[in-house]
Amino acid sequence: MEGFEFSLAKSVSLRADADGFFLISRTPIKILRLNESLYNLLKHIRDGGELAAFHTTHPQDTMKVLLTLVARGYLKLERTAPLTEYPFVSVIIPVRDQPDNLIECLKALEKVCYPGDRLEIIVVDDGSKKDVSQIVTSSNVKIIRNEASQGAAACRNTGAENAKGDILAFLDADCVAGEGWLEEPVPFFLHAGVGAAGGYIDGYDIKTPLEKYEKVFSSLNMGKQLIIEGKTESGFYVPTANLLVSREAFKAAEGFKEGMEVGEDVDFCWRLRDRGYTLIYTPSGNVAHKHRNKLGRMLKRRSEYGTSESLLYRTHRDKKKGFPAAIFSGLSFIALTLAMLLMNPYPLCALPLLYGINVWLKANTLKKYKIELSLVQLAASALRSHLSFYYFAFFHLMRYYLIIIIGLGVVWHPFWIWGGAGIIYTSITDYAVKKPQLFYAVFLFYYLLEHLAYQVGVFWGCIKYGYFGSYLISFKKV
Asked: b/e per residue, 21-41, with b = 16+ CB within 10 A?
């Protein structure tokens, strides 16, 4: 754990009393009961102590706990450990007919901060029209050629079979790695024992409106919040455009499933986690991806992602789409829906009642744990809970059922009003959070088309693979 630095997140505090040990967040309101050893570690962190000075018998497990607290918003990761030892890394790049992209990708790798004698680069040419060996002349790049195309998954497996590295670093040919691409995620393998790690994927050379949209809303962009998961039912994964995997974990997961044209990264990450390995996403270790700049190509790809869902959920029956089980927020959403669909204001009368009950319950919980908050803070917390649930509910409905809602509106026009409210609410929320460099109307245009393309793909995938698990959700207590 030496070299890592954590701090308590803003508005988070520790408390110990006769009732036990607690980690308390005031914004949002969350309370976590701790055992004494974890409390002592967090107290040590709060007081500015170095992790190296805190004795623990299982440092990697302890590090995973701390990173989980970062992911849940209780801690802030201030600094990762600088590398003092460098595991051998094999960079694996599958490519087919992208000579210019490949050359730029390889040039960027020359600037990556990692010792050259601890690094190898393997390019797997998937039957390109022009042999990659005629383009790449560097002796530091190992080239493997498939005479006929076998697909990206097979290329990655071929690269892994011929790699010497302790860590396999997968990169796409249309990506440009930043200088810290390797040295930033590698410490998580050494100190936290993760099986795989993914980093931030930014947009490259953003010019057109579509590229500006893709920069913030591409499925490759996993956001700015650290995520860590082991063997759970969540659908968390990281894209292969920026994925590092330990050799041991790669072998245990049996590599990528060949023949999958889309979703092979999701399938691989789920199998890796099912075998007990930890997967982490950290908003560092950046690469820049050259997004699709043609609307038709982007929508086709989104539809293909949707189509892959059914096969993935049919294969991994334990994986579920998590949905917050917030009772009073959910009831208020139902009341709002009824008011709009029935064109009747009376269901809205339930909103202040449900909101008031939510505030009262939060106040009782805080009183039980002897936490003091003003009525304004309590009211704001309850309002955030309701608005967050509205976003999750509307986003799910717009993502999977917008076409059905439009169709129902032909029979009963209020469905159009309700669906329109959902699109406006979710799009404004995403626009405010993601801050695209676009006019809202342009963002909304792409946003609508993407949702429609994705759900067409989902429905087609369910028919194609004979499994409608894409529409199943699992409620999670919040």
From this structure: bbbbbbeebeeeebeeebbeb
Q: Is the dihedral of CA 168, 173, 174, 177 positive or negative?
A: positive
Supply the range of the domain harboring residue 216.
89-293
Same domain? 285 vs 386 = no
Query: What pLDDT, on the 0 to 100 scale, is given for residue 443?
Result: 98
User: Average pLDDT for residues 361-377, to the nearest whole number?
Assistant: 90
Q: Are residues 70 and 35 in the same domain?
A: yes
Contact 195, 245 (CB under 8 A): yes
Q: Would residue 264 count as lying in a domain?
A: yes
**Residue 345 sits in the same domain as residue 471:** yes
DSSP 9: P
Instruction: Give how far the C-alpha of residue 366 lies from the chain's centroid of Cα atoms, to the nearest Å.
Output: 31
155 pLDDT more than 90: yes
The enclosing domain of 43 has a CATH number of: 3.90.930
pLDDT at 57: 86
Share of the chain above pLDDT 90, in %: 86
Strands 196-203 and 279-289: what pairing?
parallel
pLDDT tens for 429-450 read 999 999 999 999 999 999 999 9
Which residues neighbour 323 within 8 Å (Cβ) at sequence distance 6 or greater?
392, 396, 473, 474, 475, 476
What domain count does the chain have? 3
Do 226 and 271 lie in a common domain?
Answer: yes
24 vs 368: CA distance, rounded Å: 13
Q: What is the pLDDT of residues 116-139, one digit of tens each?
A: 999 999 999 999 988 888 888 777
421 in Cβ contact with 340 (< 8 Å): yes
Q: What count of other Cβ atoms lies within 10 Å of the Cβ of residue 59?
A: 17
* pLDDT score at 478: 66
In the DSSP assignment, the letter for residue 143 is: E
SS3 396: helix
How far apart are alpha carbons 402 and 188 in whole angstroms?
41
- In the numeric block, which tokens belong to residue 240? 């292969």
Average pLDDT of the residues in 36-46 = 96
How many residues are there in the chain? 478
Beta bridge partners of 476: 324
| Residue at a domain's end among 27, 48, 79 | 79
Look-up: residue for tokens 């789409």? Answer: 321
pLDDT in tens, 253-307: 999 999 898 999 999 999 999 999 999 999 999 999 999 889 999 999 999 999 9
282 phi and psi angles, rounded to 5 deg: -125, 130
- Answer yes or no: are the C-beta atoms of 395 and 426 closer than 8 Å: yes
> Which tokens go with 62?
């302890």
